[in-house]
Amino acid sequence: MNELTTIGTPTLWAITLAGVLVLLAFDFIVTRKPHEVSMKEAVGWSIFYIALPLIFGVWVWSEHGSDTGVKYYTGYLVEKSLSVDNLFVFIVILASFAVPRALQQRVLLVGVAGALVLRGLFIWLGAALIAQFAATFLVFGIILLFTAVKVYRDARKEEDAHVDVNSLMVVRLIRRFWPVTGEYHGTKITWKEAGRRALTPLGLVMATIIGTDIVFAIDSVPAVYGITADPYLVFVTNAFALLGLRALYFVLESALSKLVYLGFGLSVILGFIGVKLVLHWAHGVWPSVPTIPTLFSLGFILVTLAVTTVVSLRSTRRVP
Fold first, then answer.
1. pLDDT digits over 299-316, tens only?
2. Could you tell me the residue ranges of all domains in the chain?
3. What does the alpha-carbon distance between residue 262 and residue 258 come to, in Å, rounded to a whole number?
4. 318 against 94, higher pLDDT
5. Nearest to residue 91, comparing CAs of 159, 141, 190?
6. Alpha helices of the chain — where are they, by DSSP H?
7. What pLDDT score was predicted for residue 257?
8. Would you state the torsion angle of the CA atoms of residues 118, 119, 120, 125, taken in this order, to the nearest 10 degrees?
9. In this structure, are residues 208 and 97 in contact, taking their beta carbons and an 8 Å threshold?
């Protein structure tokens, strides 16, 4: 049985959860009236949601030391990178459902709220497994290695920016048990049609987004546990990466198409963290097996993202 060390005291957990709920509630208030998000509004919120975790990291560093601070910033960088990749999927889903632009941020916000709940459950489960079984690190490492291969293969494919929504498993399952209206009705999730209650396309796309959140959680939670085994740091890095996703979507909506090699970069990062987790497990069994320092991990991830971005921008600049 492993003893998990954490900086998350009951008081700190309570303050953090209250802060996340307040920010979510405020976002729902902001989006209660459907409107198209201007670039100025999106940039302003994005700056706020990037500055907030950076400032929080300064507190972590000063209160708990440089080692914990580096782990926090590394975990946040990994989660933010994965969340940017998730935006590709969101763009495809919103386009495929033809979601009106004024309603897009409400869909994204519901997706963020669902992702926070699901990742909270995965983080709790991961912490419980790590506390009981040292081999959990090995399992997480293998999951990430398989995920890295999948991301690499997906990156090699030239995907059309549209999918047949009727072929999605979540959509087929919902349509089997619940009728769906043919038109959007503002922010209504259900609508009475022909004398019976039916799901609107908005409700259907929200359910689809939440379904993808489960897949994202399977990738992202083990990735952060590869940086730190502290459940509090794992949760707070996930929360900070997700909270700003709604605004970041509208900032990067056009720029994402230029990051053509982001998938390759993320596959390298996930593979690297997978190897790191396997080595961590092996070190506990055979002490002579080396481990990868967190500072080296931070440098490797930064260099990989920088190379991926530069190569992507140079490639898209050459191709009309």
1. 898 899 889 888 888 877
2. 10-318
3. 9
4. 94
5. 159
6. 10-30, 39-64, 66-96, 101-132, 136-156, 169-177, 201-225, 231-243, 245-252, 262-285, 294-318
7. 66
8. 100
9. yes
